[in-house]
Amino acid sequence: GYYQGEGPGQGTDNGTAPSGGGHGGTGGSGYISLNVSSTGGVNYGSLTAPTTQGSGGGVESTLGGDGGGSAQVSVTGTMTINGSVTADGENMNIVGGGDNAGGSGGAVYLDVGTLAGTGSVTSNGGDSNGEGGGGGGGRISLLYATDSSTLTLSAGGGAHETIFSPNFGGAGTIYKKADADVNGSVIIDNNGNDNSTDDRRN
């Protein structure tokens, strides 16, 4: 994915309260206090055929989370996923110290004959540290003739440290469509977490 502070949905680099990168969902804003805040990165990319990489989170001084990558697979037969397919943004809550925003999730685009397996497909935003905002969720699209899977799917926004008050990243998008269907279905789920500037329905 895009490096910290870079990409179409890059987080704000304001030196005090960096915001999370955006992609399928908007990035979380930075610390909102004493008139210090930053707007989260914008959303972009395709709902039905996503190939764009995630954007980097904003940088306080030297560190911000990188965006998630992009994976695209097209097979006419069966694709079985019993492990994990991940395009998650980089978590910054493991860095320790500083105010670091999370990178946004990337993209997973699968176009298959039969989708099978019990694994997981994720494009989650990265968690933030200190006064940084969480990264926005990415984009997942699953197109298939038959779906016999019980996959766990997630494109949620990254979390923030609860002792401060920046926002979670906004939920990304999960699109599923069978070949025989005229319309697909869209899942937008942020696990009950708030992103007040979220605008992810495009």
In a nutshell, what does this entry contain?
The protein has strands spanning 70-74, 78-80, 84-86, 107-116, 120-122, 139-147, 152-154, 173-178, 185-187. It is mainly β and 202 residues long.
Q: Average the pLDDT over all residues and give the rounded result.
A: 89
The fraction of residues in strands falls at 15-25%
Number of strands: 9
Q: What is the gyration radius calculated from CA atoms?
A: 16 Å
Main β-sheet, in a few words? 6 strands, mixed
The residue ranges in which pLDDT falls below 50 over 5 or more consecutive positions are 197-202
Q: For the record, give the distance between the C-alpha atoms at the N and C termini, rounded to a whole number.
A: 21 Å
Give the proportion of residues in helices: under 10%
Class by SSE composition = mainly beta
Summed up, the helix count is 0
From the spread of the alpha carbons, the general shape counts as elongated
Which sequence of SSEs, written as H and E, runs from N to C?
EEEEEEEEE
Structural overview:
It is built from no helices and 9 strands. 56% of the residues are buried. 0% of the residues lie in helices and 22% in strands. By secondary structure, it is mostly beta strands. The strands form 2 sheets. Strands 1, 2, 4, 6, 8 and 9 form a 6-stranded mixed β-sheet that branches. Strands 3-5-7 form a 3-stranded parallel β-sheet, with no helix packed on it.
Q: What is the strand and helix layout of this fold?
A:
Layout: E1 70-74, E2 78-80, E3 84-86, E4 107-116, E5 120-122, E6 139-147, E7 152-154, E8 173-178, E9 185-187
